[in-house]
Amino acid sequence: MRAPMSWLAEHVDVPAGTTGDDVHAALVRVGLEEEALHGGDVTGPLVVGRVLSFEAEEHKNGKTIRWVQVDVGEDEPRGIVCGAGNFLVDDLVVVSLPGAVLPGGFEISARKTYGHVSDGMIASERELGLGDDHDGILRLNAKGYDATPGDDALALLGLDDVAVEVNVTPDRGYVLSIRGMARELALSTGWAFRDPAAIEAGEGTGFPVTIADDAPIRGVVGCGRFVARAVRGIDATKATPRWMQQRLTLAGMRPISLAVDITNYVMLELGQPIHGYDLDLLQGGITVRRATEGETIVTLDDVTRTLSTEDLLICDDMGPVGLAGVMGGNRTEMSDRTTDVLIEAAWFHGVSIARTARRHRLWSEASKRFERGVDPALQAVAAQRVVDLLVELAGGTADPLGTSVGETPAQPTIAFAPQDASRVTGADYSDDETRDALVRIGATVVAGEGPTWRVTPPTWRPDITERVDLVEEAARVVGYDRIPSVLPSPPSGSGLTRPQRLRRNVANALAASGLTEVLVAPFQAEADARRVGAEPVRLTNPLDERRPFLRTSLVPGLVETAQRNVGRGLTDLALFELGAIFRVEGDHGTDAVPAGAVRPDADVLATLDALPTQPRHVGALLLGARVAKQPGQAREVYGVADAIDVARRVARTLGLAVDVRQAQRDWLHPGRTAEVLLGETVVGVAGELLPSLAADADLPRQVAVVELDLDALVASARVSLDTATIGATPAATQDLSVVVDASVPAGDVLAAVREGAGDLLEHVALVDDFRGAGLDGAKSLTFALRFRDAERTLTAAQATEAKLAGLALATERTGATLRD
């Protein structure tokens, strides 16, 4: 929220000389976060001048300039070179004298140009930062300014004003107004506060308004109060006063037209969104209702929007004229032809407005305020303020036509013991200090039975609902510096749990191996969520409608991350992620999601507690060069073997050994896919992405991926790792070549050889897989075997005997035969 200092000073007695930094410091003391200062870009001597005379001169470069004599309130006029030609003798202009600094750090000095010494500069609106008009200089008399040569143009144009900007948290929506920020400034400093809402509000009658929200969505009644007032005979073509334009601009809003600017001005001043209708374009009365499914409205931004049954509408007899609390419709939009206006000031439920704004991706200044909570007692006052300004500035006449539907809800009363403030914060507050703090925020404090008070929060503070909220307010107003700083003593035995340490070890091991860790949001489109074959979990209220499902695998997120990085020119990637996936097991979730402001009953809470299972996985994606091309070395790309190596590296980090066997997955390359097994349990999959899927993601044809159930591996992790001793006796090495049907996985053959060879077999590895002429659909597998006995030197016969024992078991299980 941006608040011009001059506007704040209308409602708070700001001492002379107070700077924007001083105001920021004061607001920080009551819990607001400073953002920036806006304005104050023009400094130095900037004065009003009167054009006495000018001479047009043409120069060799083809440009015509004017040598101008300007009265700036001094004994002698100043001579200034000006390239604009839109001013006349006796015009009042803005003169930047030497020493002035314009926006962008543009310093003005006397300089020789076009054969003259130009003693300053006559400025345009654009050069002063007042607008985009650069076709000519700013003519003050044409803009309605009444001034005398030598007057301070900074004050005249409001260029000496500064806007302070603070970040408003969702629970402090009342600060999204000059009224709210001025109140906070007064709370912090003790300066006198004058409430801009303290005006007498009139009432209108005779205009039919019906609130037809008989079937509230999820317990939320969309509209609690609706006030309408009419003004007739306005001149919509009148220009918005310069002071109002300056304040709107400094507050971050673009001036549009007088009637619209007045509604925006009041919204910024009081925090109550206002909407104006061209009364002549309204057909009949107004009905506030929910939309029907598929109904449409064309909003003020000329976009046709398809509506949901949760959307709240403002309708006349012809249909929708506004998306309540978000944006009006263009059919009844105020224009230069508007003479009669109907003003709407309503209170809409924040949850309903937030859902509509999110659904249509349409966030407005109005919806921002309704989402955070608008004062439900402010509607009549805000409507009256708009009526007064339309009468004063647009020449309108207040009409008795209008209405007021709904009542201001009663504020809850909180039982509060004043000693709670000291007990909770650890500071020593007197009862008088606590009472004064609560009264200053607008609360009503009444003594109850015994030491307990009955505290009623003000209508603009919907966030105050419990005792602790009152404690926070007392601490905030009295001062956070009163709260002692005490470091807590950490309990013994704290630190990472064993699963946490093991997961961190896995991450460190992969990072040390050259992989880069990424963090990917767990939300996915339906196609990505279903691609791995699991039933995805759909969110009832997703942050992004394009990604309404929770992930069932880490791979789609890694693919998307790779796609983004490859598009930025990073062609060699090795990525990994540790994160949770989501699986539906049984009945989970509920369609009866309650409103955010309504406490669910016990049955709904029970269903909400039934969350999907969330096992932790580790996944990796490898693409591009594993070994870069270099002299004497061809380029080697990542493949399925590298994915399997990542799986084994994870297992080794946890003190485990995993096996692999050929497998099939619809989203992985057939023939280059392996299941990862821990004993007989499948704990993951490794392989190469299906080329068509890689192409869809604009990735290279060969992309290796692996995903493992990290929770399952951590649960089986060994406390200590076995260390292999270096054998003191010689090893005996032999090769074994077998012929087996092409459909038999090589891993099955290797497992049988390992088991059959017995304890003498120290190591076995597949070194060749040949398929070709003379094998008739079979394949030849060659294994390298290493035998060793810790107590004696093996003979060749002993090693051969162990090898043939392995062959025998492989023949029995897989049909393998010794190759000639």
Automatic annotation (TrEMBL):
E.C. number: 6.1.1.20
UniProt binding sites for Mg(2+): 463, 469, 472-473
The UniProt record lists the keyword tRNA-binding: yes
CDD domains the record matches: PheRS_beta_core, tRNA_bind_bactPheRS
Main localization of the protein described in the UniProt heading: cytoplasm
Ranges for domain B5: 409-485
Top-level taxon of the source organism: Bacteria
Residues covered by the TRNA-binding domain: 40-154
Catalytic activity reported: tRNA(Phe) + L-phenylalanine + ATP = L-phenylalanyl-tRNA(Phe) + AMP + diphosphate + H(+)
SUPFAM superfamilies from the UniProt entry: Anticodon-binding domain of PheRS, Class II aaRS and biotin synthetases, Nucleic acid-binding proteins, PheT/TilS domain, Putative DNA-binding domain
Start and end residues of each FDX-ACB domain: 727-819
Keyword Magnesium assigned: yes
GO terms for MF: ATP binding; magnesium ion binding; phenylalanine-tRNA ligase activity; tRNA binding
Membrane-spanning ranges: none
Location(s) in or outside the cell: Cytoplasm
UniProt-listed SMART domains: B3_4, B5, FDX-ACB
Cofactor note: Binds 2 magnesium ions per tetramer.
Keywords: Aminoacyl-tRNA synthetase, ATP-binding, Cytoplasm, Ligase, Magnesium, Metal-binding, Nucleotide-binding, Protein biosynthesis, RNA-binding, tRNA-binding
Family assignment from sequence similarity: Belongs to the phenylalanyl-tRNA synthetase beta subunit family. Type 1 subfamily.
Quaternary context: Tetramer of two alpha and two beta subunits.
UniProt-listed PANTHER family: PHENYLALANINE--TRNA LIGASE BETA SUBUNIT (PTHR10947:SF0), PHENYLALANYL-TRNA SYNTHETASE BETA CHAIN AND LEUCINE-RICH REPEAT-CONTAINING PROTEIN 47 (PTHR10947)
The protein's name in its UniProt record: Phenylalanine--tRNA ligase beta subunit
Organism, scientific name: Agrococcus jejuensis
